[in-house]
């Protein structure tokens, strides 16, 4: 018995979908900018894995998106970016369910804290290398630009990625923490207003540039969404989450071969 033409047609589209479907992870996505990015990516037909540290809140966020008609493009997986076991579980989930990762939006973070996400960096690179057009970007802040670093020597050290290494960057972060504890920030040329938040964001953008240099096959950038009204700033921002998601979505949809290692703000490349 010959297969029916409509059956062959359906199978053809299923096979083609394997090559055209894109897969994305958004961290810290149960609310605010992360949730909005998930919704907009799903609307573009990208299969999104919404992640959150709190499983209950994450599932509630997924349900909210499903009620908007996005049930076919949203999945949930618990993720604590400070827990290597949690990161490994997410990586295994993506590799098993989808086989590859095309977009990684790193939105998880805590104001004023430096997040140790070495394991997430390693897992994301290995997964995205299976994609033909991988995109990784960090949701950073305009506060992470070098104009907020008083010391010219420190500015040059952060700016020059040709001579900077990941080990040296880690040493600089450790030195900052030491100076912070000893009350020596001003004398050493570190910022004294919002010092932890500022230096963590400078470090984040700098690491993004180093990562782009180490992985030329990936499109790796950082982005400032603007001062968005979120719980983390007690809704004192001036932009809505919809407005804040505009530039991240632009980066997620950049065509193959787009520039890497850049910092974006208000939809355009900005000075670091």
From TrEMBL:
<dbReference type="GO" id="GO:0016491">
    <property type="term" value="F:oxidoreductase activity"/>
</dbReference>
<dbReference type="GO" id="GO:0016020">
    <property type="term" value="C:membrane"/>
</dbReference>
<dbReference type="InterPro" id="IPR002347">
    <property type="entry name" value="SDR_fam"/>
</dbReference>
<keyword id="KW-0560">Oxidoreductase</keyword>
<dbReference type="Pfam" id="PF00106">
    <property type="entry name" value="adh_short"/>
</dbReference>
<protein>
    <recommendedName>
        <fullName>(+)-neomenthol dehydrogenase-like</fullName>
    </recommendedName>
</protein>
<comment type="similarity">
    <text>Belongs to the short-chain dehydrogenases/reductases (SDR) family.</text>
</comment>
<dbReference type="InterPro" id="IPR036291">
    <property type="entry name" value="NAD(P)-bd_dom_sf"/>
</dbReference>
<keyword id="KW-0521">NADP</keyword>
């Amino acid at each position: 018995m010959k297969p029916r033409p409509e059956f062959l047609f359906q199978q053809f589209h299923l096979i083609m979908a394997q090559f055209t479907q894109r897969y994305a992870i958004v961290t810290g996505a149960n609310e605010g900018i992360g949730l909005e990015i998930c919704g907009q990516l799903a609307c573009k037909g990208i299969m999104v894995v919404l992640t959150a540290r709190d499983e209950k809140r994450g599932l509630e966020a997924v349900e909210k998106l499903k009620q908007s008609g996005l049930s076919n493009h949203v999945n949930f997986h618990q993720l604590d970016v400070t827990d290597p076991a949690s990161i490994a579980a997410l990586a295994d989930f993506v590799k098993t369910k989808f086989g590859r990762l095309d977009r990684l939006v790193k939105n998880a973070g805590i104001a004023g804290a430096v997040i140790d996400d070495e394991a997430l960096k390693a897992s994301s690179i290995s997964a995205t290398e299976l994609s033909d057009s991988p995109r990784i970007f960090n949701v950073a802040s305009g506060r992470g630009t070098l104009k907020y670093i008083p010391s010219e020597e420190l500015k040059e050290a952060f700016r020059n990625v040709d001579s900077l290494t990941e080990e040296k960057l880690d040493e600089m972060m450790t030195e900052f923490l030491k100076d912070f504890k000893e009350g020596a920030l001003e004398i050493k040329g570190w910022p004294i207003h919002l010092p932890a938040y500022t230096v963590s964001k400078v470090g984040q953008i700098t690491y993004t540039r180093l990562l782009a240099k180490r992985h030329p096959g990936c499109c790796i950038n950082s982005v400032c969404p603007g001062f968005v009204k979120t719980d983390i700033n007690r809704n004192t921002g001036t932009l809505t989450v919809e407005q804040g998601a505009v530039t991240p979505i632009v980066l997620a949809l950049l065509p193959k071969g787009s520039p890497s290692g850049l910092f974006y703000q208000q939809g355009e490349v900005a000075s670091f």
